[in-house]
Amino acid sequence: METPLREPTFLILTALAGDPLHGYGLITEVTRLSGGRVSLRPGTLYGALDRLADAGLVAVVREEVVDGRLRRYYQLTDHGGELLAGETERMRRNVEAATARLHARPGRPATPRLSGGPA
C-alpha cells in the first residue's frame, strides 16, 4: 500500500484501530472522525475494504446474519496497525515542522495576551 495514505483510507484504518466494525459502523465512525468532512458511500467503502484486505491491512473477524443480510465485521491487522502508526508519525512530523515554521515567520505578530492578566 502506498503512503502517504489517502484521507479516506487513513480514516478507515483509524476507525478499525478500536473494536471491530461492520460496514455501517465504519461509515458512521469515519464521518465522526472527520468531523463530517468525509462521508463514505457503501460501494466506496467495500471497494476500499477489499483492497485493504488484499494488502493484509484489515481482516474479517466475524460474520452474522441480521434481518436476512450478512454483516461482516472488520478489524485492523498487525500489519495494518504498523502502517497506520508509521503514517501517523509521518503526519505528526509534518505538522510539527509546519507549526515551527509558522511560529518563526518574520513579522509575525506577538502572541496575544489573555485579557485580565498583567500587562
TrEMBL record:
Residues 99-119 are annotated as: Disordered. It holds the Pfam family PadR. Residues 12-84 form the Transcription regulator PadR N-terminal domain. This is PadR family transcriptional regulator.
